[in-house]
Amino acid sequence: MDSRGLRPDGTIAREGSLTRVAPTFRPVVEAARARIAATFGADRLHSAYLYGSVPRGTATPGVSDLDVLLVLREEPADSDRADVQAIENDLDAAFDQIDGAAIGLASAPDLLSERERYDGGFFVACLCTPLLGEDLAANLPRYRPTSLLARETNGDLHLLLPQWRERAGQIGTEAEHKTLGRRVGRRLVRTAFTLVMPRWGGWTSDLRRAAEITARYYPERSEQFRLAATTGLGSRADADVMRILLDDLGRWLVTEYEAVHGRKAPRA
């Protein structure tokens, strides 16, 4: 993998590996693996993956969360979501190394569908590290940093902004503000980065690096990109910060993204 996150053939390399998991996080990963296998079993679980800072080797003890994707053989049911919630709670209570566990659910047929090829499929093939089961990446294409990939991964920001504004008006605790701020900051940085990704010609999931790369193309927005990155990494997201991110940077990104890449097709 070169400095732009590419293989020698110019396609995006998978960014994580179990060998990059720091020693302090290995017990958490092993506990997650064992609990997932025992709870779901091979009849329900197709595969499981780590993603985020832990498999990239950049996680901070006590600050980073454990991100996991479970791919089931059939569409997730309410019982699956209840089982996931129990695993999340147990891991969070058992390990001080993580600031919570976040386990997502998807189905193998959906991720392999044409509809998800450049969104969920890309996520699994390039941003996820296999933990259990058969790796779906074997059935997915190699991806390049194209406008198509940009649109399909981040071309739906216009749908998220109203939801975030509504959520910001409802929450009250500091922990809730921090959680929403991290979600908003991360998504805005990644949307901003994929806006310029085809021009830059590579991939990174590092929020600070992504903000700096994007700032080269839009220097007048550089401070807002950096603010989104620090918020995405857990800095305090007060009302003024959220107003800047949602009502200024977010609105601008929607307009600029549509002009450059277009909008993601609506999902039925």
Automatic annotation (TrEMBL):
Start and end residues of each Polymerase nucleotidyl transferase domain: 47-88
Keywords: Transferase
Pfam families: NTP_transf_2 (PF01909)
SUPFAM superfamilies cross-referenced by the UniProt entry: Nucleotidyltransferase
Gene Ontology MF terms: nucleotidyltransferase activity
UniProt superkingdom: Bacteria
UniProt-listed InterPro entries: NT_sf, Polymerase_NTP_transf_dom
Designated name of the protein: Nucleotidyltransferase family protein
